[in-house]
Amino acid sequence: MTLNINGLHHVTSIASDAQQNNDFFTKSLGLRRVKKTVNFDSPDTYHLYYGDAAGTPGSVMTYFPFRNAGRGRPGVGEVSETLFSVPQGSLGYWKERLGNHGVGGLAETETFGEARLRFKGPDGDGFSLVEVADDARPGWTGAGGGNAEAVRGFRGATLRLRDGAATGELLRFMGYEEVDRQGSITRYGVSNGNGADVVDIETLHGAGMAQQGAGSVHHIAFSVENRAAQLEVRKALMDTGYQVTPVIDRDYFWAIYFRTPGGVLFEVATDEPGFDRDEAPEHLGEALKLPDQHERLRAQIEAYLDPITD
């Protein structure tokens, strides 16, 4: 059987400084901060979410900014690059804008026939802006620039693995199909998805394993419509032999997690209930929202967290 995955839901990474992370995504990349909350398991650390106007699944980059976290070491067994979709003809605008913001690692390339602008995040994170034709998703224009340039959401992500065969088989089980190959990279795509439709696997035989830290992706999440679809996915994965967590309530979606053959942590997240469950759409990301179990600690948490200036 194949599973009904809609594409990516979100990508969660690690940062070393909350203010720096906020400024990069809201000012340099022009995304909207759609939620300011805390790590469920470590409430002395923010969990920051950035995306389009509503935090639509397929657009949301999230971060755990662990104060003074050491830099991660690139290698295999990780998500090496997160790809954002932008309108065709907009890379010149983005090269100038990112350059004016002091963003490093700017390099224009072409992969699978798509023009892309590679760049680095504040902690060495790997990103690309990819020109995609006919991406009808609306961009967030509240941070400068117009809809003709605005980030639409994710294009996809690249996994860097020693051996991509087993993870490729997993992706096919999840509803992806192999659509192209270029050198050491194999592209998988999901049909009729949410726009965040591709996962690339770069195979590097014999390369060293990645070490997670600031600038590393912690996990990559895939979208399903609702909890019923998620339970179907969970059962199918477990029937195939994967060790999958119970369903976990993350306030803005329900989540399950499992480790892939290549070592990358996958999540399957629901599109419901969304980021407006506890804030009005026009005020997303403004107030510090705490999970119910941590609300009693609000005074201590607010005193400990570094303030974020918008």
Automatic annotation (TrEMBL):
Q: Name one GO molecular function term.
A: dioxygenase activity
Pfam families attached to this UniProt entry: Glyoxalase
Signal peptide as annotated in the record: none
- Superkingdom of the organism of origin: Bacteria
SUPFAM superfamilies membership: Glyoxalase/Bleomycin resistance protein/Dihydroxybiphenyl dioxygenase
| Domain called VOC: residue spans | 7-132, 153-271
Stored InterPro entries: Extradiol_RC_dioxygenase (IPR052537), Glyas_Bleomycin-R_OHBP_Dase (IPR029068), Glyas_Fos-R_dOase_dom (IPR004360), VOC_core (IPR037523)
Q: Which UniProt keywords apply?
A: Dioxygenase, Oxidoreductase
Q: Does the keyword Oxidoreductase apply?
A: yes
The identity of this protein, by name, is Ring-cleaving dioxygenase
The organism of origin for this protein: Pseudooceanicola sediminis
